[in-house]
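Margin note from the TA: students keep mixing up input and output lines. Inputs are the sequences; the output is the structure of the whole complex. Example:
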Amino acid sequence: MKFKLNYSLFCVLIFTCMAVYGQKKYVMVIHGGAGTILKKNMTPEKEAAYIADLTKALQSGYEVIKSGKTSMDAVEAAIHVMEDSPLFNAGKGAVFTHDGRNEMDAAVMDGKTLSAGSVAGVTVIRNPISAARAVMEKSEHVMMVGPGAEAFAKQAKLEIVDPSYFYTKERWDGLQKAIQEDSVKTVLDHGNKKSMKLGTINKDYKFGTVGAVALDKSGNLAAGTSTGGMTNKRYGRVGDAPIIGAGTYANNATAGISCTGWGEFYIRNVVAHDISAMMEYKKMSVADASKAVLAKVGKMGGDGGLIAMDKEGHVAMPFNTEGMYRGTVTADGKIEVLIYK
Amino acid sequence: MKFKLNYSLFCVLIFTCMAVYGQKKYVMVIHGGAGTILKKNMTPEKEAAYIADLTKALQSGYEVIKSGKTSMDAVEAAIHVMEDSPLFNAGKGAVFTHDGRNEMDAAVMDGKTLSAGSVAGVTVIRNPISAARAVMEKSEHVMMVGPGAEAFAKQAKLEIVDPSYFYTKERWDGLQKAIQEDSVKTVLDHGNKKSMKLGTINKDYKFGTVGAVALDKSGNLAAGTSTGGMTNKRYGRVGDAPIIGAGTYANNATAGISCTGWGEFYIRNVVAHDISAMMEYKKMSVADASKAVLAKVGKMGGDGGLIAMDKEGHVAMPFNTEGMYRGTVTADGKIEVLIYK
């Protein structure tokens, strides 16, 4: 009997060791937006292009971490790649507003100091994520919007571009389609209370966003999110990406989080901070907390996804859409990129 | 022994009933900003004026609740009084930006549905709190900023005023003083890393804000916050007031919360949602959670206060400044107004 008990204990120990040893330690996780992404609608060329740019973003972030720089440097480097790529709804490739403009939002947060920075409604800053970082590091503010944020970015010596830099034919065509669909939708929904609202959302729109969470050699977490917002948006609408606690949050005590999806639901659920709070106050794992909070969003009618990483390098990438552009890189440099369910 | 046990139980029951009966049930709590408010600096006339307007705001909210309308109606009514008063930094009486403009922010949240609305950087809407409510009720968005938010408010038939409506001599003089102090501060701090930051904050500035939380006869909570932001602010700075989860939050499961203070610290600590999360996940009381979260703000170097009320009508009004304009009204209409510690 005694031997049997010890043997059981021995087995439990062995399995525990195997589980711990076998568990990958990640240093970065990124996303390039969640939505109706189906393999049947994707050409091999387009798929390859997405995989290439997501891989490049992860490589950039990994190089930074490997060299001993901060997680914030890694987040900025990875997001630069996605902002500079026309494939993602952030920076070059941002969707158009109803007025035919590209109005971008971005935010960063440092898990060690709980410092944060964000910009909203900027139109001439090449890399909005760097503007968010500049707000955090070079001002005593957290959030700046519109022309004021742009004046600040100029003073902070960030790269300013002509708004035409952000033009891509695909997004312009997307706006024309959205305008047409919206007007059709308004006629069809005539008399429906919901459609009488100003700024009605066509659920089929893409709410693309890019984001990254990194963990550096000092054990510090950082998170960042950058977006062009919603196609055909009006009224200076701001989504969750630049809202600290909603679309972006980082705290060394819990996790770094970046969200993508139907922003209004993410704001109302204070998604990123809620995940952190569940981890801190309910002692939930990053995976369980992420799943639980995304379920709240889904229950309310919102869709999207998120990425999260805790200080041990455990990663969660849940989404309730058809797909989410996403990827990870481990401490030993192994990159994995995924698109579909 | 049996009798003794029953007797003990009887005593516990009696004391519980007494405690419940003796505990006041509040239906509304308001604040008019926290800061360096000292009795020695206050004239009897000014003090009387503040008390009169805070009382009027509470009366307005109470009448709405008494008549059976919603907590959101009560919050809007109370905040209208404070926005229309030149005494508070919201609506008429809003402080001036560096460029001599009045840029206002506001937010509301409905505890039953977790619906929310907010506006930031608006300059021509007489009552920004009503614009926030319109965003919540008449659009599918949560947050709108700048001219876009104003265009929406016009379409939603809100009262539009000339920007000169918001002028008050006291606030204009405050801006001139702030500009002078800032330039002196910059010279004095020359070489100090912190002062090299763009948009340096003079800690002596007032971060006035108004806010209200109400509980209606149906047991629903609502919260709202309205502010003119920070005197001499630049770069389109946005504080915590219009950020759902930071300065404003309501959830029937926990509490309604409205904050006032140094906004940057409230955003970084996601103050309003953190109080709610502590109540939900750690089963803390509204008083203990409010105190704990304000302590986090204080530890980080931020100052201010907040009001919070749970679904049972328990109220918390902590602040770590010299004073906070605040007041409560109970279910039986008893009004209490306080200013100092």
